[in-house]
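Need the bound structure for FE2/S2 (inorganic) cluster, inputs here:
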Amino acid sequence: MGATMDFEQLAEQVDRLTEEVLRIEDEGARESAIRLKEAVEAIHREALVQIVRRLKEDDATLAALRELAREPAVRMVLMLHELIKPPLGTRVQPALDEVRPYIHSHGGDVELVELVDGTARLRLSGACQGCPGSTMTLRNGVEQALRRHAPELVGIELVEEERAAGALIALDAISVAGSAARLPDPAGGWRLAMPLAQLSAAGVTRAEIDGVDVLLAQPNGKLVCYRNVCAHMSMPLDAGEVSNGVLTCPWHGFQYDLESGECLTAPEVQLEPVPVRARAGIVEVRLAGVASL
Ligand code: FES
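Answer from helper R.:
Posting the output first, comments after.
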């Protein structure tokens, strides 16, 4: 944690000095200082782009890059230079939050059910449910917001909760980026994770499957899986403590309800869910549409 504190102190120093620069009264001096900062950052970004591009060319160096990206300072710098994107799920939620007032004005609500093959499956509820105008509501509001926040999404699928059986029925598929939603692969994107018996009974269990880092847990007996990424600063959560179904991030203390993935510290964000199931004592996760580094 010593190195982490050093990094955080440096980051705070940068913030403090930046504020001081912005308060310089002499306009010419202030703009020169800002341009100097931007020029240094541009050099760093150019160098980092070349380093990351080269490391991604080879499986062994890509693995080393992924390992490095778990270090707080490295991850933060890569994120600052937009070389690591926040998880897709954490960008879909702000998009939905953005249009929620509009959906509310139609007497309904919208929620993300899951991300599959790069397609966001959304559920409308309230007055929107089953309403013929639902598709237009999505086109006009949700689609535009998702394009801004998560342009790599390939589609939106509107699902409705069947009142009698609780099953999900696909109602419609809408192209977001002008491309059709993909057909599922033969395995449906499901991958073997581990024997169910290997899961921690009280805590979380980390697994890396096809390069995707996930957390598995069984709060209240319900099998759940999330990307091993904190919504605060995208640090790994697997060393976090679990108490009464609440996972606490080991880095800065964000807390999550393990059963729902909701963030108790900042309700506007949440853990990115990964579809999971157990069959014949084996845990399987569906990774299609879940991005790795
Ligand atoms: S990374 Fe800051 S609370 Fe998790």
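Comments: The longest strand covers residues 108-116. Residues 162-186 have pLDDT under 50 and may be disordered.
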